Amino acid sequence: MLFSPQIPLQLEPRREQDFDHFVAGPNEAVLQSLRGIVDGPELQAYLWGPPSSGKTHLLNALCLATRSRGGSAFYAGLKNLPTGSQALLDGLEQVDLLCIDDCEHAAGDAEWETALFHCINRFRDAGRKLVLASREPLGSLPLNLPDLKSRLQWGLRLQLLALGDEQKLLVLGRYASSLGIELPEELGRYLLRRHARRLDRLIAALEQLQQAAFVGKRRLTVPLAREVLGLTMESTDH
Fold it and tell me: Cα–Cα distance between 61 and 96 in angstroms, integer?
């Protein structure tokens, strides 16, 4: 995997997170709008939704689709950038598409707000495409720079809705396949019921179970999940 929180600036998209592997559920219209950005005239979009709703996946998919057409595209996740790294956004308007994730981490930080403001202006002046994502709707971001809020209002504003349980099971199954394993439906439903509702935590649990199964030369089963994850009561993580 080329994407790592250890590198100073995360410019490489995750190769397994393309449009074809995205489980849209109630977000089919958002998916089609983002697909249209790759070849269409829209220069900017603001994507928001709750944790684990698929924002990062879709940003990576945009980058991969742009690259597949011969364009240049980078992904940057703000929550993992080192302190004082705002200047790393300088000059990125030379690429065809930049996707900036975790924009809520810039809100309230004067240096980051200023950096984003200038970044948006440079991309607009260069006629390049910029897609930003956040957990918060634009009106709820605690921004101190009014001009940044006005710039974020440019272009499309797209809301992602949380997936239902059946769609989450489908995502887990596809992720398991990408790991080279098969997820029994019984185990998937057990994890949803007893472990977590958020996809990022479910995926982390699946990775933990895969490692335990490999080391212990065991199959992925409900008893293994009870043992490894310590699931003895109903989860309160909803």
Answer: 14
